[in-house]
Hints:
Distance between the termini: 30 Å
Number of strands: 6
Strand content: 5-15%
Number of domains: 2
Oligomer: single chain
Structural class: alpha+beta
Shape: elongated
Helix content: 25-40%
Strand order of the largest sheet: 1-2-3-4
Amino acid sequence: MSLIDDVLKLVHSGWRAFRGEVQDEAYERLGCRRPRSASWFVRGRHFLCLGCTRRCALYDPTGFQLPLPAAFPPEAESRFTLHPSELVRVKAWLRVEEAAWCLNVSPRQVYKLAAEGVLERHPESPVRLSAESVRREMERVE
């Protein structure tokens, strides 16, 4: 596993980068030889350092500044309250973002599929795609 893989896994499971202060005494207690390379992540009261291969993990440590709660933008998955199969069932026309959600592709790919004639586009602006054509493409891909 690479460091990037580790960071992505942490962020995906609710960890966030810790930007607070850590007192020198905390590093001394850990026996950390390179505190300047420390890279801390926090989730609740759990702290994890990815600065070296030791991967120090602490619970409610002393010497760490209290992390403030952070509000993050909702993930793409949480923007839609309906499952893709329900979305194509209850709506006749879908926005590009909705079609991308249903097909698990980027909005750019949806525009490409519409230009190729795979997805049926509404003749007027803004761009809407028929739920039926999106449903057919969902079934074809499965």
